[in-house]
């Protein structure tokens, strides 16, 4: 009887021990291999959630919990804790062009001309785009209606900047009073009053091949704030005629499309057409010099 009782107790002890080992497999474990760190949280939740099987070996669980508590007191991380480090701050190199403002193939050229012209902000003539260069180029593009005004130093921006920078206002023979000056070679216009430039050089588009704007000295002989063109059936805002059917007026198309031109008239951007309208009157002197390339 004693041996039978002892055998029964031995079987029970083995069964409890084996069952307890199986239950411990559901405890969150730390991967010590270095290949994955802590187990994913989902694994822990699946094993310890309400749907997990009961763990009968409470003494072993309590012992493990005490060990974990002791480890945490020593500064070791909890097996179930996940340490999240904030992302390292990123630094944008100062030499990198600002977002949305790409560097164009004519960067140095545009910088040089804008520095010469002045009035558009600080630019550094080094051929490298910067935030200051970008803003200056954008202001220049908006002023002369270069589209899109995204700060990129492309061919149109370079061409306009060069023509304006190369315009010599002293070449215009201006007398007393107001004189409108047109440089056909550089396709620019400016105004002088009593020997002083009151409208700095701005862009224009004159007569195309077969309709070249004639050079010479004239006077405005007719004005109308909005003139209708009979042959071309289009309104001509801020019309100021100075010879034959040719005069100043606001452009009706994109001014920087150099594949086309006017039928002899001096096309102007809206703000420039208004400014010349405010300065001009019947009798205002007009001095036209040079010749448009290709005419």
Automatic annotation (TrEMBL):
Residues 56-76 have a biased composition (Basic and acidic residues). The active site is at residues 249, 265. InterPro entries: LD-transpeptidase, LD_TPept_cat_dom, PGBD-like_sf, Transpep_catalytic_dom. Residues 86-100 have a biased composition (Pro residues). It comes from Plantactinospora sonchi. It comes from the Bacteria. Pathway: Cell wall biogenesis; peptidoglycan biosynthesis. This is L,D-transpeptidase family protein.
């Amino acid at each position: 009887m004693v041996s039978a009782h002892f055998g029964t107790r031995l079987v029970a002890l083995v069964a409890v021990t084996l069952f307890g080992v199986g239950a411990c497999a559901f405890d969150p474990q730390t991967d010590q291999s270095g290949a994955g760190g802590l187990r994913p949280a989902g694994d822990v939740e699946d094993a310890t959630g309400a749907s997990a099987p009961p763990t009968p070996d409470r003494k072993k669980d309590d012992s493990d919990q005490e060990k974990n508590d002791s480890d945490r007191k020593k500064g070791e991380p909890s097996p179930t804790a996940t340490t999240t480090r904030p992302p390292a701050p990123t630094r944008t190199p100062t030499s990198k062009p600002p977002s949305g403002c790409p560097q164009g193939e004519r960067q140095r050229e545009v910088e040089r001309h804008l520095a010469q012209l002045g009035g558009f902000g600080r630019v550094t003539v080094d051929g490298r785009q910067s935030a200051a260069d970008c803003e200056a180029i954008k202001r220049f593009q908006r002023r002369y209606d270069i589209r899109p005004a995204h700060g990129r130093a492309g061919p149109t921006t370079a061409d306009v900047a060069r023509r304006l920078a190369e315009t010599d206002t002293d070449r215009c023979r201006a007398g007393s009073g107001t004189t409108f000056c047109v440089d056909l070679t550089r396709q620019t216009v400016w105004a002088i009053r009593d020997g002083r430039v009151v409208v700095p050089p701005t862009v224009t588009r004159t007569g195309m091949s077969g309709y070249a704007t004639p050079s010479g000295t004239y006077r405005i002989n007719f004005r109308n704030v909005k003139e209708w063109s009979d042959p071309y059936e289009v309104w001509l805002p801020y019309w100021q005629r100075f010879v034959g059917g040719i005069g100043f007026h606001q452009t009706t198309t994109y001014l920087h499309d150099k594949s086309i031109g006017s039928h002899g008239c001096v096309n102007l951007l809206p703000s420039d057409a208004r400014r010349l309208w405010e300065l001009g009157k019947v009798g205002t002197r007009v001095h036209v010099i040079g010749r448009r390339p290709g005419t």
